[in-house]
């Protein structure tokens, strides 16, 4: 990163230097240098992903021995091996399991977080201040502090090795970031709309459903996308709660694939890796506007 | 952030709302209906588990036999008789101290480069953000393990300029940095927040500074940094809290056992091993509470020190 330091300086000043009658030739050179810097960062950044794609198509003897990024010939058999899945469970089953958990989580988060957010953003009640403060505090709470008792509870309920521990908490608005994100968004909506609906005789439920919720759509989409990607990527919770290979997700299977195979199976392993991130990549391309905007406006973490 | 919860001015509301409705609203009947899922979650999945975990931390519990009260033994064992515990603390602290500043420095640098770019700004912003979404996945962690392996791309690149490191992943001194670099790779999230912060800095401040004869560096140090300091602080707190809890990349890169030679046995990895592999749920609960308190203490220290370096423009006015 040291190479970008001069650019950093210029960036700080350049922002408004247009009014300072700069030598236009110099500005142009600076702009080109900046774009070169950005492209260089981009190449370093994307290299691991290109490497992943290339390696997933390499024949077994080239994976670790050849430094060339591109394979000598394209080895599609890596993908056919990966499609067989692991421990007799097909990859379609694994993907379907991941999808089930992610979609369940999305529904849970969107429903429960928007309900709570509406109360915090629009309704008045005595405990609002303390409760809102508490909600913010739980955003900072490390997951591990509640992990073991949660496991004991789900174990007592006979829910270990089912998807309930992965989906049920989302229906109880446990991911406070999303409550906060939606609250922030709802606060930006004009209150006059609520008032008008109230004068027309709407109660809080009707106002929520017919007035506020439709306008909150961008925040709900951001919530849905992040929830989907985070649940899809999740490993820790799945590792703890799922044991039956039939119930494994693509992430867990990938992890076990590494354990069971020697280095000669690198190709199929990375083929499986590519398959496992395809849904995230598709989501990213389809919704990147919402993702980046959502991050920027809420100050939320990814 | 909590200060934003102030209710709207009461008088404005009272004129627009019939008195009986205002009364109902203030009692909060409907509000609590909307909040029911959240309240259930807080009680059943946050407060009760925290209390249970505190209780368990004073017991010996293996999930099958009833918990046996042992007083402070878990804590005293942890602090005085468990070198592996301290090793995991050291590894985690080293990781936090390396990964957080590295990630934030890259994020700030790229955000500054991008902030006054007109062409293709949206493209760069999205492309730089992509690793933040993929980085938490098992697939990418496996890629990093291969890239930093013996004979992997990084090893070969360094060897070609005469630096022979071997595989970082199998070197107890270097393995933790692989995880730190993977974290830095995901600088997109703080970068987007920095960018939003940079947009908020009023242009006339730069003009005034330029008129006073301030050069680029001077403007960066005297205008950009102070104006951006609340955003730096926000990112610093969030990244620090998250870094203490790193799990998936550590698990994948170490092969699930904290290797080589326990050098990537992060706090959370050791907690998982104690609780779920060795079935010492009491000990793991004690570890969880120490982690909670440690994160709380670090956050508090950050907030304390912030008074001397975080500048809030609206306060000075």
Automatic annotation (TrEMBL), chain A:
Its main location: membrane. InterPro entries: MetI-like, MetI-like_sf. It holds the Pfam family BPD_transp_1. Keywords: Cell membrane, Membrane, Transmembrane, Transmembrane helix, Transport. PROSITE patterns: ABC_TM1. The chain crosses the membrane at residues 36-54, 99-120, 132-154, 166-186, 207-232, 265-287. This is Carbohydrate ABC transporter permease.
From TrEMBL, chain B:
Keywords: Cell membrane, Membrane, Transmembrane, Transmembrane helix, Transport. SUPFAM superfamilies: MalF N-terminal region-like, MetI-like. Residues 89-302 form the ABC transmembrane type-1 domain. It is found in: Cell membrane. Residues 1-10 have a biased composition (Pro residues). The chain crosses the membrane at residues 31-58, 93-114, 126-147, 174-198, 219-238, 281-303. Residues 1-28 are annotated as: Disordered. InterPro entries: ABC_transporter_permease, MetI-like, MetI-like_sf. It is a multi-pass membrane protein. Signal peptide: none annotated. Belongs to the binding-protein-dependent transport system permease family. This is Sugar ABC transporter permease. It comes from Streptomyces prunicolor.
């Amino acid at each position: 990163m040291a190479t970008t330091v001069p650019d950093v300086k210029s960036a700080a000043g350049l922002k408004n230097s247009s009014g300072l009658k700069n030598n236009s030739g110099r500005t142009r050179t600076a702009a080109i240098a900046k774009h070169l810097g950005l492209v260089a960062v981009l190449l370093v950044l994307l290299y691991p992903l290109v490497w992943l794609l290339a390696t997933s198509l390499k024949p077994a003897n080239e994976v670790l021995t050849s430094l060339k990024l591109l394979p000598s010939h394209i080895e599609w058999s890596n993908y056919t091996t990966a499609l067989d899945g692991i421990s007799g469970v097909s990859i379609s089953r694994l993907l379907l399991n991941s999808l089930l958990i992610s979609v369940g989580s999305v529904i849970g988060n969107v429903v429960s977080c928007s309900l709570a957010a509406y109360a915090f953003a629009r309704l008045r009640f005595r405990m609002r201040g303390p409760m809102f403060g508490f909600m913010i505090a739980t955003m900072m709470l490390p997951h591990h502090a509640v992990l073991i008792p949660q496991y004991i509870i789900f174990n007592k309920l006979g829910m270990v090795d089912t998807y309930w521990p992965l989906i049920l908490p989302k229906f109880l608005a446990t991911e406070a970031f999303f409550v906060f994100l939606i609250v922030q968004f709802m606060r930006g909506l004009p209150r006059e709309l609520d008032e008008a609906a109230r004068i027309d005789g709407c109660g809080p439920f009707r106002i929520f459903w017919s007035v506020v919720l439709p306008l909150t759509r961008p925040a709900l989409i951001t919530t849905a996308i992040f929830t989907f990607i985070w649940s899809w990527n999740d490993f820790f919770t799945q590792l703890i709660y799922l044991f039956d290979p039939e119930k494994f997700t693509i992430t867990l299977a990938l992890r076990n694939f590494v354990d069971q195979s020697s280095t000669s199976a690198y190709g199929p392993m990375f083929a499986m890796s590519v398959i496992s991130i395809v849904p995230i990549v598709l989501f990213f391309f389809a919704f990147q506007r919402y993702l980046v905007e959502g991050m920027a406006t809420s100050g939320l973490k990814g | 952030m909590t200060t934003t919860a102030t209710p709207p001015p009461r008088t404005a509301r009272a004129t627009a709302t019939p008195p009986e409705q205002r009364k109902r609203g203030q009692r909060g009947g409907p509000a609590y209906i909307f909040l029911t899922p959240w309240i259930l979650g807080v009680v059943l999945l946050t407060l009760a588990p925290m209390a249970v975990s505190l209780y368990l931390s004073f017991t010996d519990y293996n999930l099958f036999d009833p918990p046996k009260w042992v007083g402070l033994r878990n804590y005293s064992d942890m602090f005085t008789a468990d070198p592996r515990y301290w090793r995991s603390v050291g590894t985690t602290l080293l990781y936090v101290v390396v990964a957080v500043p590295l990630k934030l420095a890259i994020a700030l640098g790229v955000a500054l480069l991008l902030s006054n770019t007109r062409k293709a700004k949206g493209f760069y912003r999205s492309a730089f953000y992509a690793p933040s979404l993929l980085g938490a996945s098992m697939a990418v962690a496996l890629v990093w393990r291969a890239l930093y392996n013996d004979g992997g791309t990084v090893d070969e690149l360094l060897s070609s300029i005469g630096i022979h490191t071997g595989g970082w992943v199998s070197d107890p001194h270097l393995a933790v940095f692989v995880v730190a670099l993977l974290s830095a790779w995901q600088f997109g999230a703080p970068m987007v927040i920095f960018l939003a912060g940079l947009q908020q800095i009023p242009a006339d401040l730069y003009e005034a500074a330029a008129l006073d004869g301030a050069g680029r560096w001077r403007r960066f140090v005297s205008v950009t940094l102070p104006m951006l300091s609340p955003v730096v602080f926000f990112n610093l707190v969030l990244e620090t809290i998250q870094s203490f809890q790193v799990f998936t990349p550590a698990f994948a890169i170490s092969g699930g056992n904290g290797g080589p030679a326990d050098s990537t046995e992060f706090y959370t990895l050791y907690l998982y091993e104690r609780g779920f592999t060795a079935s010492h749920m009491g000990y793991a609960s004690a570890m969880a509470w120490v982690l909670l308190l440690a994160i709380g203490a670090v956050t508090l220290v950050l907030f304390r020190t912030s008074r001397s370096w975080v500048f809030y423009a609206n306060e000075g006015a």
